[in-house]
């Protein structure tokens, strides 16, 4: 695992956007693993500019998102489906909607949906580049502390701290969903290459713990030490004093 401090949030976001662009240019049938959260907004804003500048044909690119809330419809303003369409998919007509995948948190049989999603990743994958944010408690996707490193896509319960952290996107903390469908830790590790992005002082503690090198289910991101190709891209505020 390589930790790279790029100084500013802007540099860090541009790096991640550049890597996604390079992947898509090198293989127009790339499979991208996408993430949501505030952290990724500037990555997608830059990626939109880069795709435009390079006039990329996106019709054969496949995307898999990490997670989706349960309990809100997919067209809810705070669903990850809405987020992804606003920041990336709706900007280009060349995306093929059939190649865009997010778990569906509004179906009746959530366990069946989770199994379907995992099988689809196996069928169409492996994911070439998986981007990840990190929760303040070290979660990746919505895999909260304590999650088994063998977990596959499943229904997960969000911790109080994640609900609190994500309440900034909702009018009221009571509106924040308490469950999600998330790719599991084992699902995430199937990707060929992983780029974790973290910036700002709120992420420093999780990054500090990650840097300690201890691999523990209490810090889900620490499982990334078991993967051969992981970069942790940081700004100066998230980079721990050593
Ligand atoms: C969210 C998402 C994660 C994200 C993390 C950090 O709950 N499920 O994929 O990486 O928490 O979010 P943010 O970037 O808004 O800090």
Helix content: 25-40%
Could you name the CATH class?
Alpha Beta
What's the CATH architecture name? 3-Layer(aba) Sandwich
Spatial strand arrangement across the major sheet: 1-10-9-6-2-3-5
Q: Could you list the spans in which at least 5 consecutive residues all have pLDDT below 50?
A: none
Strand content: 15-25%
**Structural domain tally:** 1
Overall geometry comes to: globular
Main sheet properties: 7 strands, parallel
Bound heterogens, unique: 2-amino-2-deoxy-6-O-phosphono-alpha-D-glucopyranose
Count of discrete alpha- or pi-helical segments spanning 4 or more residues: 7
Structural class: alpha/beta
Mean pLDDT: 96
Order of helices and strands: EHEHEEHEHEEHEHEHE
How far do the termini sit from each other? 17 Å
At the fold tier of CATH, the topology name is: Rossmann fold
**Gyration radius from CA atoms, angstroms:** 17 Å
């Amino acid at each position: 695992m390589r930790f790279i401090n790029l100084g500013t949030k802007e540099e860090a976001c541009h790096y991640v956007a550049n890597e996604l662009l390079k992947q898509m240019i090198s293989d127009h049938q790339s499979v991208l693993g996408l993430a949501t959260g505030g952290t990724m907004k500037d990555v997608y804003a830059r990626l939109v500019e880069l795709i435009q500048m390079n006039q990329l044909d996106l019709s054969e690119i496949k995307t898999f998102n990490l997670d989706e809330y349960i309990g809100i419809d997919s067209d809810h303003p705070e669903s990850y489906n809405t987020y992804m369409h606003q920041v990336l998919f709706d900007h280009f007509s060349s995306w093929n909607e059939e190649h865009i995948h997010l778990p569906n948190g509004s179906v009746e049989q959530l366990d069946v949906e989770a199994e379907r999603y995992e099988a689809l990743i196996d069928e169409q994958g492996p994911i070439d580049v998986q981007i990840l944010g990190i929760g303040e408690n070290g979660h990746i996707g919505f895999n909260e502390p304590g999650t088994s490193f063998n977990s596959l896509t499943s229904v997960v319960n969000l911790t109080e701290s994640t609900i609190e952290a994500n309440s900034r996107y909702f009018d009221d903390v009571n509106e924040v969903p308490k469950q999600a469908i998330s790719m599991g830790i084992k699902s995430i590790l199937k990707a060929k290459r992983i780029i974790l992005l973290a910036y700002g002082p709120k992420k420093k503690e999780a990054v500090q713990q990650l840097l300690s090198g201890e691999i523990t289910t209490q810090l889900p991101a620490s499982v990334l030490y078991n993967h051969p190709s992981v970069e942790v891209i940081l700004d100066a505020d998230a980079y721990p004093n050593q």
